[in-house]
Amino acid sequence: MKNNHIKHLIEINVAMLFIATSGALGRYVQLPVSVTIGIRAILAFVVLFLFCKWKGFSFKISKSDAPVIFISGLLMGIHWVAYFYALKLSNVAIGMLSIFTYPVITAFLEPILLKTKFQLVHLLLAFLVLTGIYFLSPSLDFENSYTLAISLGVFSAFAYALRNIILKKKVNKYNGSILMTYQTAIVGVLLFPFLFTIEPILIVEQWKALIALAVLTTAIGHTLFLMTFKHFNITTVSILSSVQPVYGIIIGAIFLSEIPRGTTILGGILILSSVVIESVRAKKIPKT
After folding, report:
1. Closest to 188 (Cα-Cα) out of 31, 36, 42, 35
2. What pLDDT was estimated at residue 288?
3. What sign has the CA pseudo-torsion 242, 243, 249, 252?
4. Which residue range or ranges hold the EamA domain (predicted)?
């Protein structure tokens, strides 16, 4: 039993490591964001589809679940596009830390969407997050690329939080690979027209990074992440996933030589502290 627990801890850390490559790869790929995300989704769809066929997973979903899965795919696309724009306008540290406001955003959305009781402590955590965002970009000027990047990062976090909430009940019903296959298909179809806005040679020149983004970050990373929901409760997943920006910043420092500033580190500590506080606090609340 103990060995299984250690195995599952390793699995979620591997998932976070793979997903964290999105920061460096998003900065490295020199293509329009809509094209990058479109290719990412299409390639990931092909890999996931073949994997599901090989495993013999059923692609059948109920009609009542189809609208939810479509909306979750749309939100996933919005999350990716806004996040990559944030990366282009700033750096790996700013981009990744700004989207990690999503756990606190989730805490505000859940009472509204799932009719749960609102907790006053969430206002204090929101203040902590806002303080962290201030340190990421002390100058609140929308002509400043960092301020715009943080705004896009928070918007990306909002879309991601909303996607996670509406998809929460479907994880136990459908295999994680199947859900990701549908979501990548939806994003790929919606962004497919943008692939004709640039010369094909530009895409071919960056095929290695695009395949890495599709396979490592999306097909492997996000699928492993969804599968960890079966082994941990959402609270534990939230705590463990807070290591993702750390991995991302380290990868950015190694491969892109992007060393975060002191204020960025301080802002990141405040944001990630709010995630851990909320996770630990929620874990102590007895379930009804």
Report:
1. 42
2. 44
3. negative
4. 14-137, 148-277
Calpha distance 19→242 (Å, rounded)? 12
Between CA 93 and CA 103 the distance in angstroms is: 18
What are the angstrom distances between the C-alpha of 127 and each of 10, 55, 96, 263, 285? 33, 46, 19, 17, 22
Per residue in 223-236, pLDDT (tens digit) is 888 777 777 655 56
**Pair of tokens at residue 41:** 């989704």
Report residue 107 as tokens. Answer: 């805490």
pTM given for the model: 0.83
pLDDT of residue 282: 56
Are the C-beta atoms of 225 and 19 separated by less than 8 Å? Answer: yes
Asked whether the predicted pLDDT for residue 287 surpasses 80, the reply is no
Would you state the pLDDT for residue 13? 83
Average pLDDT over residues 136-158: 79
pLDDT of residue 38: 96
Query: Where exactly are the structural domains of the chain?
Result: 2-284
Q: How far apart are CA 167 and CA 162, in angstroms?
A: 9
User: Within its chain, how far is the Cα of 228 from the centroid?
Assistant: 15
* DSSP assignment of 177-225: HHHHHHHHHHHHHHHGGGGGGS-HHHHHHTHHHHHHIIIIIIIIIIHHH
